[in-house]
From TrEMBL, chains A, B, C, D, E, F:
It comes from Actinomadura rugatobispora. It comes from the Bacteria. This is AAA family ATPase. SMART domains: AAA. SUPFAM superfamilies: P-loop containing nucleoside triphosphate hydrolases (SSF52540). The keyword Nucleotide-binding applies. The keyword Cytoplasm does not apply. Pfam families: AAA_5 (PF07728), CbbQ_C (PF08406). Residues 20-163 form the AAA+ ATPase domain.
Amino acid sequence: MSTYFSQGDEVTLFERAHRRQLPMMITGPTGCGKTRLVEHMGERLGRPVVTISCHDDLTSGDLVGRFVVAGGDVIWNDGPLTRAVKDGALCYLDEVVEARHDSLAVLHSLTDHRRTLYLDRAGQVLHAPREFMLICSYNPAYRSSLKDLKPSFRQRFVTLAMDYLPPDREAEVLVAESGIDRPAAERLVRCATGIRTADQIFHLEPPSTRALVAAAQLIAAGADELHATQACVLAPLSTDGAITDGLREIAAAALSTDRTSTT
Amino acid sequence: MSTYFSQGDEVTLFERAHRRQLPMMITGPTGCGKTRLVEHMGERLGRPVVTISCHDDLTSGDLVGRFVVAGGDVIWNDGPLTRAVKDGALCYLDEVVEARHDSLAVLHSLTDHRRTLYLDRAGQVLHAPREFMLICSYNPAYRSSLKDLKPSFRQRFVTLAMDYLPPDREAEVLVAESGIDRPAAERLVRCATGIRTADQIFHLEPPSTRALVAAAQLIAAGADELHATQACVLAPLSTDGAITDGLREIAAAALSTDRTSTT
Amino acid sequence: MSTYFSQGDEVTLFERAHRRQLPMMITGPTGCGKTRLVEHMGERLGRPVVTISCHDDLTSGDLVGRFVVAGGDVIWNDGPLTRAVKDGALCYLDEVVEARHDSLAVLHSLTDHRRTLYLDRAGQVLHAPREFMLICSYNPAYRSSLKDLKPSFRQRFVTLAMDYLPPDREAEVLVAESGIDRPAAERLVRCATGIRTADQIFHLEPPSTRALVAAAQLIAAGADELHATQACVLAPLSTDGAITDGLREIAAAALSTDRTSTT
Amino acid sequence: MSTYFSQGDEVTLFERAHRRQLPMMITGPTGCGKTRLVEHMGERLGRPVVTISCHDDLTSGDLVGRFVVAGGDVIWNDGPLTRAVKDGALCYLDEVVEARHDSLAVLHSLTDHRRTLYLDRAGQVLHAPREFMLICSYNPAYRSSLKDLKPSFRQRFVTLAMDYLPPDREAEVLVAESGIDRPAAERLVRCATGIRTADQIFHLEPPSTRALVAAAQLIAAGADELHATQACVLAPLSTDGAITDGLREIAAAALSTDRTSTT
Amino acid sequence: MSTYFSQGDEVTLFERAHRRQLPMMITGPTGCGKTRLVEHMGERLGRPVVTISCHDDLTSGDLVGRFVVAGGDVIWNDGPLTRAVKDGALCYLDEVVEARHDSLAVLHSLTDHRRTLYLDRAGQVLHAPREFMLICSYNPAYRSSLKDLKPSFRQRFVTLAMDYLPPDREAEVLVAESGIDRPAAERLVRCATGIRTADQIFHLEPPSTRALVAAAQLIAAGADELHATQACVLAPLSTDGAITDGLREIAAAALSTDRTSTT
Amino acid sequence: MSTYFSQGDEVTLFERAHRRQLPMMITGPTGCGKTRLVEHMGERLGRPVVTISCHDDLTSGDLVGRFVVAGGDVIWNDGPLTRAVKDGALCYLDEVVEARHDSLAVLHSLTDHRRTLYLDRAGQVLHAPREFMLICSYNPAYRSSLKDLKPSFRQRFVTLAMDYLPPDREAEVLVAESGIDRPAAERLVRCATGIRTADQIFHLEPPSTRALVAAAQLIAAGADELHATQACVLAPLSTDGAITDGLREIAAAALSTDRTSTT
């Protein structure tokens, strides 16, 4: 089983929802570990994970399947959701808020007491086994009137709110994934924390743990800390000159102060 | 026959409409039991229920059927509406307000004195048997100029307005479905009632009976009452910090007051 | 021949238009009897009626036909309009204002001196027989800049403006269709007339004869008059609390006054 | 050759354009005789007329043709424009302003010195014979920023502006087409002239000669003059009560004054 | 080789761009001779010309080709752009501003140092031979925020700005193409020049040389000069009465003054 | 290996990202050398480059592949992204900001620790080999609310910000690519620098190195410097007369001053 750095009681909540056959909605900022939690729970519960990246163009046919022509005949081809139901898998709809709401209607009967998938076009009705669980995720920071999930849809799920790891654990992750030393990891985390705090001023998407890992990997490959931070953490945040300068000051301060203090 | 907790005379009204071959429109908030009523009436009247979840992308072809290629030949494939007409089933269009209005035009001749389904593409005309009944549902709280049902469409149906169960019966449902004890069920219902009352202030979708059942199930699985309420009842309502705090206060008060008073 | 309750000279006007091979446009509020007139004229003139419910998604291919693959070959499949022309039928386009205007272009050559249907894709030209007649209907109360019929389209038709039946005849219809007694029918009609008069204040779609018939049928099945009126006549009109209360007062007054005066 | 009532020198202009191989654009109000002129010129020049009713959904494939599957093989199927080019026909695009502008791009090379049709998908290039002529029509009264023809497109054509016939000739048409007597025809024309004059006030589409012919035919079938005028001339103009009343006064005056003066 | 009336050094610039393998963008008002220049250069350079009329519906598949079914098998069918690359032709995209910008992305690799066409769907990469040249044209007078070409796209081309011929040469063209005498040609050109000058006031698309040629041809066919000018030059410009009157005055003055002065 | 003129440490950063299996986002103005860098790195790392020009119409099927019919059977056809993953290629998505965001969702699992491509429709899961690298590019100057990349997407990449070459190196490129002499190259660069500086005033897309190379090639083919600059550098920038005049002054000054000073 791969190492998983837990934030709190999310593993327990997930297990309880799975035991009571309740679907789960995981919320949290980009790159805070939502996908990793699902992968970890799949290993822990001994169930396969079927991942579906949601997008505007995902049709209900893409989810449940469709008829295809093969060898001159027409046969039904299960979609990933149907396969997950049949296999009793954990079915993970990543960034569900990106999906067209009409594609989500097919999930309704799977998320209430029916736990049933209606394959209207195939003329079949599937009852989900106990092991099957539906998990969705989204980032509540992206709220727009057009794409916000319907309240009645959100009420169908047990909601698990995730956030960034606490600084200590985040530094631990950087060391484990890139091989840089602990002080350098702490400098990067301090830099991220500084920007996340300044976030209220800049109205930016805060830097993710994933971006910190990338910076750590460039450093491990020989890059200068400030350059690596610039390329992986600062540059993706904004292309506005003034903001970029402000961010660089925060980063430079965090990286050098820290270095002084740890040497 | 599964247990059904009735709200009033909805079963009688449904039976009369069925006897006089009138279509029915069920309105009411999310998760108040519309789907369960239809399932219950199917059992009671001894008719199969064909459920169709409506969405923007549902074409009239999805409802009535289409030609498909099979074994090199083209054959007509009945859609769920056509199958329901042929089987004398209860055909249930869930959240009909989500459907494109043009897809609904095919229902017109089924909802007046003709009780006829025109399959233009197949060149067939089907007369619905006495047993067939069309039921639609929608939540009138979701009114938008774009998606509101046309008045002339609504006038084609006998309208049944449902609401949440009274507190006593709602607690009864929680006990029956999750196995928690009666006082805990009452605490959860009191919590929901508090939020539903505060609804005028917060402008939120009020919590559904379905969400309460989910919280009850997490409690039955060992979760703390406040945490379960947070995950299943409060978190889906809003991601706005201030509102979330207000909701948590209401919930904490309802859960603790109640506990004190019942011990 | 089924009973038809005429409003005035609409049968004569229809016959004259048919004799002179002129197409007809029937206007009037929802459920005032447009469809029934066409069915009646079909019986009277001894011609089949082909009904097409118009909607946004109706293509000209749906009207005139298309090529389909059958047994490995491609054959032309007549649409309902083409079949109606070939059979000399009455072709009835219900709620024509709902159709996309581009789908209606195919009707132009059928509605002027040419009386010709060009099947461009099939490479055929059909001349309509004397018996063929095109009838369209729409409800002028639904006027929106987007969907209003083009004036040049409306000028292609003899226009027949229908309205609700006078109260006496409307009560006659209720008795004939539901079996309730005459005084109860009169109470329902008085109730409808009251709301139709109040219509200028509430800006609602007025209740249709069809909705009154449904209420009469529930009453015949044992329902209370006020409840039946609520479910079939009032509830479909509005979900706004204040308006609903106003409507219920009008209904209660009409139903009770009447009962007193007839006993 | 069918009778054609000419307005002025339109026949000469048409013949000159045909002789010099220039395309023609005919403008004028609805029902003023544009289609009849093209039919008449087809007879006069001894060329077939291919009519295409333009609409929003007309693709360039509908105009030039497409590949279709037949007997397991794929064969090219000429569209009406391609057939017209090959046959040296008069190709008439009725209401060209309704077509999507992108569908019209295929006409460019046919309307300049090239007189060539590029069938990109079929890989063919067709040179139009001398006899071929492209004619388009539209009603300039329907000007909207969205659908107005591009100036560069209009400049590709010789423009022929048509209008209603002068009263004498219009009455002549009514007599010829319906068989009513001359005084009645004159009353109808006076009525139309009155409304066309009042047009500046009412901002309506003025009544067409086609609508007058329909009224004349109802009169010939026994209808009262005012009723026939109401059904065929007034009712299509407006559904606004005040305007309708104003129109009826104009009509009643025109019909009665005239009757007095001619008796 | 057909006669070509050059405006200046456009032939030289075109030849230099061709020699250095640079793509060219020709700009200029409608009907000023852009298409004729490309045809002329094709003859001069001894290369075939492949013309593609751009429009909103042109897909990249229409440009590069697509798979089609033939004889039960699927074969790749080159589009006109692919054929032009293979043949080393001049590929002319007429009115490129009309094309959807996404269809133009396929041109990027052909318009920089790569001179390469990627046929992603066919899995092929084509290197353009030296002889191949891509030419686009558009009329900068049609600027709209929606359809303007992206600056980065325009920078990929050598830009050749064309305009109307000087009066003398334009009259020469009229004589050569229609056979009218020189004074009449000069009168027509003076008329056009007058309107082009008044263009700032009327905000019209100025009359093209093509429209003058059409007028000249009608005159050669016996039409009166003012009538021919009205039908081919004035009528396409506007349907607004006041503007039309203003234009006719300019035209009448230009035609008569001139006639006096030349007799 | 073709000559590459580096701007700074971009080659080193690229190599480090490749070694640590991190995806890269290259930003910079049009024609500053983004595409050339990717080609250069392909040669340097000994990996093939698969280029995909992004546009609005690019579907995820175009990226990953789709089922196609061949010889009566249905076979899976890899798209360029899938081929790049299988071949361990550098996969370059040019102007990724042009792509529909929903098409980009398929990239998520390739750009985090999973480095996995889910082919949902084919039912396959591909793990990218070490050699595979995903590179995207875009021009941050084109920012629009509709098309801006999501921050969470940008955070998945190491960002490399490119800009125009310094004047000396840009002149070097012009000499190398066109064969003009050094002083002429310097005059062109000075001209470009002048316009790029004036850019804040004119709000134009600044001229690219690519446009300067084109001008240099026309000069090498015998064109006058000012004419070549006009056709390749100034004309694509604007069609507004006043701006064009301003630009021409800057260009004339830069070209002549320079000439004087270098002679």
